[in-house]
Amino acid sequence: MPGLTAAEWEIIQLSLRVAFWSVLCSLPLAVAVAMLLARCKFPGKSLFDAVVHLPLVLPPVVIGYFLLLLLGRRGPLGALLDQYFGIVVAFRWTGAAIAAGIMGFPLMVRAIRLSLESIDTGLEAAARTLGARRWRVFLTITLPLAMPGILTGTLLSFARSLGEFGATITFVSNIPGETRTLPLAIYTLTQVPGGDAAALRLSIIAIVLSIIALMLSEWFVQRAQRRAKGRDA
Amino acid sequence: MLKVDVSKKLANFELDTQFASDAGITALFGHSGSGKTTLVNAIAGLARPDRGSIEINGDCLFDSARGIDVAVENRRVGYVFQEGRLFPHLTVRGNLDYGYALARPAQRYVERKLVVDLLGLGHVLDRRPANLSGGEKQRVAIGRALLASPRVLLMDEPLAALDNLRKTEILRYVECLHDEIKVPIVYVTHAVEEIVRLADVVVLMAEGKVLATGKPSEVMGRAELRAHTGIFEGGTVIDAKVVAHDLKYDLTTLEFSGGELIVPGVDALPGEAMRLRVRARDVSIALTRPTDISLLNVLCGQVVEAVPGDDSTCNVRVDIGGVQLAARITRLSADRLGLQPGREVYAMIKAISLDR
User: Fold this and answer.
1) Close Cβ partners of A16 (under 8 Å, ≥ 6 residues apart)
2) Distance (Å) from the C-alpha of residue A157 to the closest C-alpha of chain B?
3) What is the pLDDT of residue B93?
4) Which residue has the higher pLDDT, B227 or A157?
C-alpha cells in the first residue's frame, strides 16, 4: 500500500484527536463514578448504575439524538454554553468527542469498577494508620492498585471512540475535516460509486490502528498487573 | 499511659471493655472471637465504639460524651496487622518510608537505618512484598509501623500466620525492638507462650469483657480464670531471678518468692530476671520430702485446693511462698494422699521452661 494521501491523513488525525480527547475528559469522571459504585452505598444506586450503562444498550442514534436536543445551539444546555461561554459543540469535532466519550463511558466505568472492587480495603486502612489522609490514600494506594483496570478501561473506551458512528453522525453530522472520522469516512465512500478501493484502504488503516492500540495496551496492562501484584517488575 | 473504656454492639455479644496500662508490653489475651481485634481497631480508629473514651498519654483520641473522634491518620497509633498488609505495588523500601515520610520531623524518634538493622531487612530493601517470606513480610510490617513514629504500637496476632520457627524469630525481634525503642506495645494474642514471653501486663478477655488485668504470673495462676486461660492446659508462670551458676554441672540456680529452683545452665548474668513456666502435668505431689530421687526441684508448700476433673485427673494448687503452683495428678492419687486445703505437701517439678 503506497503512502497515505493528505485526505487520509486528515481523517486519521481527526479520529485520533476525537478519541484522545473523549478518553482524556471522560477518564476522571469514570474513575469517580467507578469509586462511587464500588465503594459507596446510597439510595437509588441501582438506578444510577443503570443510567451509567444506558449507552451500552440504547441504539447509538438515540444517544446522538438526545445530545442534539440537549447540546444543539437551541438546546437548553447548548444555548447556555453558547450565550455565556461562546462554546458551540454541535457540528464540531468537540461534539464528536463528547458523543464518543459518552458511548465509551460504561465500558470504562465497568473495567475500573471491577479492579477497584478487587482491591483489599485493608491496605487503605493500613495506609491511614500510617498517617495518610483519604485523598493521599486514594492517590498512593487505590489508584496504583486499580491501574490495570484503568488501562483496560481506557483502551476499551479509546477503541469504542475510534469506531463510534451512530451517535456521532446524528449529533454532529458528517462534515469533512470537522466531524468526518474514520467510520464516517468509510461509510461515505461506500455510498458513492467507485469509492470501494478508498473505503478498503481506510478499513485496513482502521484495522492497523486497532491492532497497535491493542498491543500497546496489553503491554501496559501486563506491566501494571505485575506492579499491582507486587512482583519485581 | 493507655486508657481504654469503650463499648460497642457486635454481632454475637457486646464489647464492653475497660483497662488502663502503662506497661511496656500489654497483652490482650483471649479466645478468638472475644473482641480483641475490635478493641484494637477501636484504638486505631478503624472501628467506632458506640460509647466510651480512649486516651493515650493524656491525649484524648475518642470520647463519645465530648464528641471527640480523632481521624485514623491523626492518631499516631501504629498497627501491625495479622496478615501484614504490605503495599504490593511498593518495594520494601517504599513500604518502610510510607509512614516515615508522613510523620512530622519533630515527632520522629527512630531512623530507617536503625529499624532496618534491628529487623535485619538490609538485603530485601529493593524487593517487593510478593517476593518475601512470611517472616520477612511481618518484619517489614513491624518496621513500617514503627517508622511512622507511633505513640503506641498495636500488634494483632502478628505471628498467627507463621510457622513455629518463624514465630520464635519474630518474637526475638519484637523483644529486641522493645529494648531498643521504648514504644509501648499492645499485643493481641491467643497463644500463652507469647504472653508469658513478652507481656508485662496481661488483659484477659472473654465475650467482649475484661475478666482480669495484671502480671502474667498472677492472671495465669488464678484458679477461677482457668476456663479462659485453659489453652495453657494448666500451668504456672513464675517470675524469678538468676542467683548463681554451677559451671561444673552446667546448672543455674534461680530464686523466686517461694525458694530456689535449679535449671540447666542459662546464659544470663546473676541478678537478671527470668520468667519460668511449669506445666501442671510436670508437677507431682508427695506428703513427705522424697529422698533418693533424681529430681532437683522439690518445694514445700500448702494445698490451696484440689479440684477433681471430669476425667481421671485432679487439679491441685499448692501455695509456695505466695506462688500458686498448679499440679495435675490422678484423682486416685489425690484420694490416696488425702489432699485437703491446708495440708503440707512437697511439690516435685519434672520440667521447667524458661522465657526471658
Assistant:
1) A162, A209
2) 25
3) 95
4) A157
Sheet with strand B353-355: strands edge to edge: B259-264, B251-256, B235-246, B273-279, B353-355
Of B73, B85, B127, the CB nearest to A132: B73
Distance from CA of A224 to the nearest CA of B (A): 9
User: What's the pLDDT score for residue B275?
Assistant: 81
Q: Shortest CA distance to B181 belongs to which of B231, B156, B211, B147?
A: B147
Q: B229 to chain A nearest CA, in Å?
A: 30
pLDDT band at A231 (very low <50, low <70, confident <90, very high): low
Q: Look up the ipTM and state it.
A: 0.82
A36-49: pLDDT as tens digits: 999 999 999 999 99
Biggest distance spanned by C-alpha atoms of chain A: 69
pLDDT recorded at residue B246:
87
A132 touches chain B (CB under 8 A): yes
Amino acid at A15: S
User: Mind listing the pLDDT tens digit for each residue in B73-122?
Assistant: 999 999 999 888 999 999 999 999 999 999 998 888 888 898 898 888 99
The one-letter amino acid code at A96 reads: A
SS3 (DSSP) at A91: coil
Number of residues assigned to chain B: 356
Using the Cβ of A127 and the Cβ atoms of chain B, whether some distance falls under 8 Å is answered with: yes
DSSP B122: G
Residue B7: count of CB within 10 angstroms of its CB: 17
- Which of B44, B85, B130 lies nearest to residue A231, judging by beta carbons? B130
| A 141-170 → B contacts, CB under 8 A | 141, 144-145
